[in-house]
Design brief:
single chain, aminopeptidase, Pept_M24, alpha+beta, 4-stranded antiparallel beta sheet, 6 helices
Length: 307
Amino acid sequence: MAAASGLQPGLLSTFVGDRLLHSRLPIPHLFGYKTGGGHHVSMRFSRAFSGLTNLLFNRRIVEEVPNTKRKPLRPGKLSPRRPVPDSILKPPYVDTRQSPGISSGAEVHDEMGIECMRASGRLAAQVLQYAGTLVKPGVKTDEIDEAVHQMIIENGAYPSPLGYGGFPKSVCTSVNECICHGIPDSRELEDGDIINIDVTVYLNGYHGDTSATFFCGDVSDSARKLVQVTKECLDKAISICAPGVELKKIGKTIHDHADKHRYGVVRTFVGHGVGRVFHADPVVLHCRNNEGGRMKLNQTFTIGTIV
């Protein structure tokens, strides 16, 4: 999901673990990216930092939201984990509660792999489209999770987030100031909310990963503009992708368009390779950077613009 620069001091970081963390740090300290050392959190150092799981999947940070009459988000109640039939192929991390992190080395697909990626991506897109139709005031994010879970398993696939590093749900629902990877719970959506729904399915041994932000009821002009500009950033970044193109051009493209509309870019959360592994190289930064690497033919990765 995207977040306007005016809301940044109150952004929430993601998942819940065994405790609720309150953060009073300013956003530059929470989300600063730096290409060397220091205390700035960077996905470049994620393997030494126990991988994506510690950074994205094991905590929920709560902060007051300034300059708004809306109540800040608070974690609701979680329903029990939903079962998956034994007949469905599961990713190797399921039930281990281990931190898989980012798999080293770019994955380049053969012809069969590309067809499998198309199938998993197609199913993920269909699930996402259906989930978006459920967004309306009064609907609980846990109800969205239940519907997503059921549709995925009915199609013979596994919901990739379920069990990833202990993540308890089958989809990510990030409302308002939650940046990404929010956990579905008992909170009901309210008129004026925006919600990002992040769907990943594991079908025939390949992960298909996609997300979009939806409007709930009568949404403010500022929120609509935020979502529009973020989508433009994504479209522009996708348009430059081709074999041989430097990966760092993705970040520059996104950052330049965000600057044009006077939005900031959240730097901690990144795109990533996806395929047989949920999170793999390359790490795709969404801000200007000097990282190396070029796109390869038959390589698949995500771009998750957060501005």
